[in-house]
Amino acid sequence: MTLRSLLDKGAGSAIALSAPARQPLTYVQLRRHVDTIGRQLAGQGLHASDRVAIVLPNGPEMASSFLAVASYMSAAPLNPNYKRNEYEFYLSDLKPALVIVEQGSDNPVRQAAAALNIPVAEARVKPDMSAGEFLLFDEEADITPASTEQEALVLHTSGTTSRPKVVPLLQKNILASARNIAASLELRDHDHCLNIMPLFHIHGLIAVLIASMGKGASVCCSAGFNALKFMELAALEQISWYSGVPTMHQAILLRAKRNPAQAQALSLRFIRSSSASLPPAVFEELVAVFDCPVIEAYGMTEAAHQMTSNPLGEGRQKAGFVGIATSPEVCILDAQGETQPQGKEGEVCIKGDNVTPGYENNPEANASSFTGGWFRTGDQGYFDEEGYLKITGRLKEIINRGGEKISPLEVDNVLMEHPAVLQVVTFAVADKLLGEEIGAAIVLADGATLSEAELKAYANQRLAKFKVPRHVRFVDEIPKGATGKLQRIGLAEKLDL
User: Fold this and answer.
1) Strands 192-195 vs 241-244: parallel, antiparallel or unpaired
2) Which of 395, 415, 450 is the last residue of a domain?
3) Could you write out the DSSP letters of every residue in 275-321?
4) 429-462 in b/e burial notation, b at 16+ Cβ within 10 A?
5) pLDDT the model gives residue 162
6) What's the pLDDT band for 422 if we cut at 50, 70, 90?
7) Does residue 427 sit in the same domain as residue 372?
8) For 334, how many CA atoms within 13 A lie in the half-sphere containing its CB?
């Protein structure tokens, strides 16, 4: 199975992609478009081994360009909000044969590409085209779809703790992950998902787009996440599910709680959460307000997204846990590579068809990341008696306070239970005596008041004394990454602690 053959699963007249105020794109149109773009790329002399960088805003053209490029060669989607110097870094790393941009765009990727002698092509959209259709070139040439062992997608790691690493993913990697996700969610051809995730990120590309395409289902490609418009668009599109990161769910909840009847009227089959730990308090609120299961899953770029997921069946979701293994093998190893028993904490490790063959041109990272065929995720966790995985933190984010190892996630979850707290991120602060102390950045709920002393008193009642934050900062907003994940690394410096 390859991405191109996956697209053959959808019924010809069924809707594949939609967008607000646009004519939807059927599966027969999508397949025709994908093949046309493949031939147009071949007409420029590109081959299966070439990479094509895609710099387009979120929407149907971003979705269809990825599907088209990845069906025939390797797609390298990039954040359209990067600055010129960032583009120069990523393009130098990726060495694409072409960059695709929006028609008329003045995105600085043009200057970065020119400096590196990389040609740029505009995705040209005509007024009569359906959502996702565009033209690149007039010339066409024959081309064969990629094979299972060919690279389909290439992304960078986030680079929060080191230089971003290049992660190549093969056709078989992304298809295995999409298949696992579709099975976990029991996706059906009449499911309709509202995509609010950026399509330059593994979450939106695999968990929403390809997983849906593999079941002949449909995706509404929004222009990006807008909490103010989410409820209206979800109702208009009559969606059956959506997937997001915790900060998105929290923003949606703020508005849904003001009109719970409207939220329940959506009749969502489920809500999915991934890419960061979902606080149990937020989990419970989502279930109550939307009256549907909340499926928390665990993923990362190197695994083509999903590794574990809570099952969909009634009563089978556990708040604070990221579920059971969903086809890739998952185990807990200690620092010496020994498997840990149930209940014993260690590093989460995975192996399976969804896992990258290794970082590009980085033998040092590969040597430290792979042990006996297992990929070390860098996450710390354990399995409970039912095989559900609990993530207790990133190994590099664990706070070492005078020898006491503290999981920031544990502190986050406790503080999130305070009714005045909307968002919280716990982080390490350098300390001359103890090495590291605990800091907490707090965003208060609308109209709420809370003092530092009150917060610490609340924490003292629920946490061991050494886990109570020493440094507390109330902020209007916590820095987020491009995908909406709250940023823990480097926060102390940003807050002058």
Assistant:
1) parallel
2) 395
3) SSPPPHHHHHHHHHHH-S-EEEEEEEGGGTEEEEE---STT---TT-
4) beeeebebbbbbbbbbeeeeebeeeebeebbeee
5) 58
6) very high
7) no
8) 8
| Model pTM score | 0.88
Q: Do 275 and 158 form a contact (C-beta atoms < 8 A)?
A: no
> Nearest to residue 179, comparing CAs of 199, 207, 204?
207
Q: Which residue range(s) make up the domain with 15?
A: 1-395
Is 472 found in the same domain as 379? no
The pLDDT of residue 337 is: 92
290, with CB counted inside 10 A (0-12, 13-18, 19+), is buried
Q: Which two tokens stand for residue 361?
A: 């041109």
Other CB atoms closer than 10 Å to residue 42's CB: what's the count?
Answer: 21
Whether 394 and 404 have beta carbons less than 8 Å apart is answered as no
Question: Phi first, then psi: what are they for 151, rounded to 5°?
Answer: -65, 130
Q: What is the dihedral of CA 154, 160, 161, 165, to 10 degrees?
A: 10
176 pLDDT exceeds 70?
A: yes
Q: Give how many domains the chain has, as a whole number.
A: 2
User: Per the structure block, which two tokens stand in for 283?
Assistant: 């989990």
Assess whether pLDDT exceeds 70 at residue 160. Answer: no
CA 132 to chain centre: 21
Residue 268 near residue 239 (C-beta atoms within 8 A):
yes
